[in-house]
Amino acid sequence: MKGTVLYEVKEEVAILTVDNPPVNPLSDGVRTGLYESLVKAEEDDSVKGVVLTGNGRAFIAGADISEFGGNVEGIPLNEVFNKLEFCKKPVVAAINGVALGGGLETALCCNYRIAAETAFVGLPEVNLGLLPGGGGTQRLPRLIGPGEALKMMLSGSHVPAIKALKMGIVDKTSKDVVAESIDFIKEMASNNDNHPRVRDKNEKMLEARGDKNILLEAQAMAAKARKGQFAPGQIIKCVEAAINIDNFDEGIKKEGEYFMECLFHPQREAMIHIFFGERAASKISDVPKDTKIKDIKKAGIIGSGTMGGGIAMCFANAGIPVHIIDQDEENLKRGVSVIEKNYDFMVNKGRLTAEQKDGVFGLVTSSLDYKDVSDCDIVIEAVYENLELKHEIFKSLDEHVKEGAILASNTSGLDIDSIASVTKRPEMVVGTHFFSPANIMRLLEVVRGEATSDETLATIMAIGKKLKKAAVVSLNAPGFIGNRMLFGYTAQANMLLLEGALPHQIDQALESFGLNMGPFRMMDLVGLDLGWRARKLSGKESPLHAKIGDELCEQDRYGQKNGAGYYNYSEGSRAPNPAPENEETYERISAENGFTRREISDEEIVDRCILALINEGADILSEGVSQRAADIDVVYINGYGFPIWRGGPMHHANAMGLDVVIEKLEKYKEITGSDVYKPSEMLVKLAKNGEKLGEAPEKDNRKEKLGFEMSSVANNF
Ligand SMILES: NC(=O)c1ccc[n+]([C@@H]2O[C@H](COP(=O)([O-])OP(=O)(O)OC[C@H]3O[C@@H](n4cnc5c(N)ncnc54)[C@H](O)[C@@H]3O)[C@@H](O)[C@H]2O)c1
User: Fold this and answer.
1) pTM for this one?
2) 327 CB under 6 A from ligand 1?
3) Helices in 156-244 by DSSP H: which ranges?
4) Which of 355, 368, 524, 606 has a Cα-to-Cα distance from 233 of 20 to 30 A?
5) Residue 392 catalytic?
6) Which domains does the chain have, with CATH numbers?
7) Candidates 125, 269, 278, 616; catalytic one
C-alpha cells in the first residue's frame, strides 16, 4: 500500500501526520492509516483531541490519480471521511500546505480548520473532468454559501489562506500551524462537548432555496469559461441537490451518482490525458535526468514589439530581472509603455496591487545598447521574422553576451540550425517559440537544433516551468509542431470556402466542435496580408487555397487591422459581422478555378479540417519532430484553442479509433483528390496492429524529416 499516517501523542493530543511524499495524496495506505489512527485516538482515554496535518510542504494534495480506473484497495474514502466526521474526539485540520481536492474535502470533515499563512486550498477536480466527489459539493456550499462554492468549484482555482479565512473556509491562519492547532484543540476539548460539523450547517442552504439566480449565474459562468464541458453541469446539479434536499446523506448519494457519470465520461479520460501529458512533455527521452541546469539570474530580450514585451513580462512575473534592447528609440518607448499599461490593467482589475506592480515592473529595464545584455544568462531574440536580420543579431549577441549564456530565438518558423551556425556557441542556441500574447498563452515550443546541448535544453525546460508555461520540445523542422499542423488545417478551411461553404458556416461548425475560434475569425485576427505579401515577394503563383484570401487583400480587406476581411468589424470592436459583399468574390474565384460551388455539411467541414490536423500530426510523430503524440495534444490545446475536453487531436484520433480515422481519410481523398488525406503510413501501421498513437518511433525507424527548403510551411509563417 502507498503512503501511511504517522501517529504520536503530545500534551494529550493525538497528532496524525499524513506521510506520502512528495505531496501526500490520499492513496490506499493513507486512507487505511487515517482510519486506523482515528480508531486508536478514540480508544486512547488520555487523548482529548486530534490534530490532522501533513508531512513536508503539503497537507494533502488530493486523490491519488493513478488509482483511477484500476482496482482500488484499502478502506474506501467515504468510510474514512465518515470516521473522521463522527470521531469521538474533536479534530482540527492543521493545513500546513496545499489542501486541494480530496485534501480540502478531508479538512471539511474535521470540526475545525487552521491554515498556515502560506497554505492554499481549492477543489480543482473540474480541471480533470470530475467533480469533488468526497462530499465537497455538499460541504463547501454549507460552509461558505452555494454561490461562492460554485465559483470555486467551477473555476477550480486555488485560494490562498488569507482569502480562505475571509471566505470562512478556515477558522484561523497561523505562522506555526501545528503548535497552534495543539493549543486550540486542547482548549476546545476542555471548554465544550459540542463540536461543529459542516454537514449540520443548513442556514446558507435554506437562505438559497428559491433563489434561482445562484444556479443561473453558475450556468452562465460554466457556459463562458468551460464551453462544452460535462463536469460543470454535474457540479451545478450537486449544489442544487445540496440546496433543495434537507437530508445531507441524500445529497451525498446524489453527488456519488453524478460523480460516477463524470468518471465514466470520455471527457474525464481526455482531460487526465492532458494532465499527465503536460508533465510528460517536460521530459526529454534522451536527455539524462541529472543534466546540469544553468542558473538564470538575468534575461535579455532583443526587440520590444508584440512578442518581446510579452516575453519580458513572463520573466518579470517569475521574479527574474529582464533587460530589453531595441534598435529604435520610438519602438522601445512604445514597447515599454505597453508593458506598463498591461500591468496597470491588472492593477485596475484587482489582480495585482500597486506595490506588486512596482515590484514586477521594476525588474524590467531597457536601452538601445547591446552591451547592456552582456551579463545576461539568457538572451531571447524577438525581432522581425527575417533570416538575414536574425543572423546579424546572433553574430552580435555572440560577441557581446558573456560566455556560457544561452542565445534563443523566438522565430515562428526559421531554421534554428542556420541561426546557430553564425555563432561560436551553436550548442547554446535554441528556439523558444512563445505564443501571442506571450504573457498569457501557456504554450512554449522549445526548438531543438542539431547542435543544441542537453544542458541548454534542460535549462530551457526548467525556465519554462518557472515561467509557468506548458513547454514542449520540437525538432528543428518547418513550422515546428503547431504551425505545421495549422497550415494544413487552414488550407482545408480555405478549400471548403472555394468549394462552396461560407466563412461563418465553417467557423460555426468548428466552434461547435469545441475550438475557441474558427479559422476565418483567426485569419482575420492574424491579418490576411502577411501571407499575401510573402507570396507576392516570392513571385510564384499562389496555391489554390490562398486564391480567395489574396483577392480580398487586393480589395484592401486585410482582416481586423483595417476593419474588413472575411468579416466586417466596427471600429474598436473585435466582434465579426457578416460581409455579404464578399460573396460575389467567393463565387467568381471558385468559378475561375473550375469549382462548382456545392452545399457542404457541417460534418464534412469538421471532418476535413480535423483530419488534416490528425494526418499531419501523425507525420510529425513518425519523423520524430515531436517525441510523443501527447506532446502534440499539449501544443494544440495550449496554443491553438483545441478543446481540452477532447484531449487534443491525437487523443481524439485514438478515441475515434484509428481504423475509423483511416476510413474517413480515404473517403475524403476520394472526394477531394487531395494528398492531404492520403493516410499517414504511421496511422496505417498502427491501425493494422490495433495500436494507438503514442511514442515517436526509434531513431532508425523514423520517416525522413522535412527540410526547410522543401517545405511550403516555411514560406507561409
Ligand atoms: N506576433 C506573433 O503573433 C508571433 C508569435 C510567435 C512568434 N513570433 C515571432 O516573434 C518575432 C517577433 O515578432 P513580433 O510580432 O513581436 O514583431 P514586432 O514587429 O512586433 O516587433 C519587432 C521589434 O524588433 C525590433 N527590431 C528590429 N530589428 C532590430 C534590431 N536589429 N535590434 C533590436 N531590435 C530590433 C523592432 O524595432 C520592433 O520593435 C518574429 O520572429 C515572429 O515571427 C511572432
Assistant:
1) 0.93
2) yes
3) 161-167, 177-191, 203-208, 212-225, 231-244
4) 606
5) no
6) 4-263 (3.90.226.10), 299-476 (3.40.50.720), 478-717 (1.10.1040.50)
7) 125
Model confidence pLDDT, tens digit, residues 338-380: 999 999 999 999 999 999 999 999 999 999 999 999 999 999 9
Report the separation in Å between the CA atom of 302 and the middle of ligand 1, taken as the mean of its atom positions. Answer: 8
Distance 307 CA to ligand 1 centre (A): 6
Report the distance separating Cα 385 and Cα 340, nearest Å.
Answer: 25
Quote the Cα angle for 644-343-227, to 5°: 20
> Nearest to residue 603, comparing CAs of 512, 504, 699?
512
Q: Strand locations in 370-481, DSSP E?
A: 378-381, 406-409, 429-434, 443-448, 470-475
**Quick one: cell of 313?**
513580462
Instruction: Tell me if 344 CB under 6 Å of ligand 1.
Output: no
Name 332's Cβ contacts closer than 8 Å, sequence gap at least 6.
304, 324, 325, 326, 366, 367, 368
Ligand 1 pocket member 436 (CB < 6 A): yes
In whole angstroms, what is the distance from residue 440 CA to residue 436 CA? 8
Q: Phi/psi at 404 (nearest 5 deg)?
A: 90, -10
Please enumerate in sequence order all residues whose Cβ is within 8 A of that of 428, keeping only pairs 6 or more positions apart, or say none: 404, 405, 406, 407, 452, 453, 456
Distance of CA 46 to the CA centre of its chain: 50
Pocket test for ligand 1, best of 301, 302, 304, 307 (most atoms within 8 A of CB): 307
